[in-house]
Specification:
Elements: E1 4-5, H1 11-15, E2 20-26, H2 31-46, E3 50-56, H3 61-66, E4 74-79, E5 82-88, H4 93-99
Parallel strand pairs: 1-3, 2-3
Antiparallel strand pairs: 2-4, 4-5
Length: 102
């Protein structure tokens, strides 16, 4: 499955997904975000059972605020509408995959 661009208009459907959700909070100007982005894309392609979304904090400050995003990249894992994991900073693929394991 491909990555979904998440905004305030489609956030509720993403949040209420039956699937495990991985959200990548980023900005286009952020170097570490550009390092994480292709890894997040790979995870989305390799794990169709996970809903993967990207949220541009410059375009969606309300959503960033809802998750208390102070630094980017921030990765958030949600299950049944609740945050189960949250991490800040660039992470290698194995660490991101570990966040998705219950």
């Amino acid at each position: 499955m491909s990555v979904i661009n998440v905004d305030k208009n489609n956030f509720d459907s993403v949040k209420n997904s039956d699937k495990l959700v991985l959200l990548d909070f980023y900005a286009d100007w952020c170097g570490p975000c550009r390092m994480v982005s292709p890894v997040v894309d790979e995870i989305a392609e390799e794990n169709p059972q996970i809903l993967v979304g990207k949220i541009n904090v410059d375009n969606e400050p309300e959503l960033a605020g809802e998750f208390n995003v102070a630094s980017i990249p921030t990765l958030v894992v949600m299950k049944h509408g609740k945050v189960v994991q949250q991490s800040v900073g660039a992470k290698p693929k194995p660490q991101i995959l570990a966040m998705l394991e219950e």
